C-alpha cells in the first residue's frame, strides 16, 4: 500500500469576492486582519494558503463560517502531465 501524496491538495478561497462585496481595498482588509496588503494579494491570486489562525480571522471579520471563504480541495494524484 502506497502513501497518498498531498502535494496537489489546495486551499481555494473567496477572499476577493468577500472583499469586493464589502467595498474594501486589499489594504483595508489587510489592516483589519493584521497582515500586509501583499499577503491579501497573493492569497487572492491563489499563490498563498493562509495559516489556520489567519483564515479564522478573515472569516470572523466577515462574520461567516470559515468554510464559506476557504475550501479544501484534494488533489487528483496526477502530476498535471
Automatic annotation (TrEMBL):
Coiled coil: none annotated. Keywords: DNA-binding. It holds the Pfam family HTH_3. SMART domains: HTH_XRE. Gene3D superfamilies: lambda repressor-like DNA-binding domains (1.10.260.40). PANTHER family: DNA-BIDING PHAGE PROTEIN, TRACRIPTIONAL REGULATORY PROTEIN-RELATED-RELATED. This is HTH cro/C1-type domain-containing protein. It comes from Lentilactobacillus rapi DSM 19907 = JCM 15042.
Amino acid at each position: 500500500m502506497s502513501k497518498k501524496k498531498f502535494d496537489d491538495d489546495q486551499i481555494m478561497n473567496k477572499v476577493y469576492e468577500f472583499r469586493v462585496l464589502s467595498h474594501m481595498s486589499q489594504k483595508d482588509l489587510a489592516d483589519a486582519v493584521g497582515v500586509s496588503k501583499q499577503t491579501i494579494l497573493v492569497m487572492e491570486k491563489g499563490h498563498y494558503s493562509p495559516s489556520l489562525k489567519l483564515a479564522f480571522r478573515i472569516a470572523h471579520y466577515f462574520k461567516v463560517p470559515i468554510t464559506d471563504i476557504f475550501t479544501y480541495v484534494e488533489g487528483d494524484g496526477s502530476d498535471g502531465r
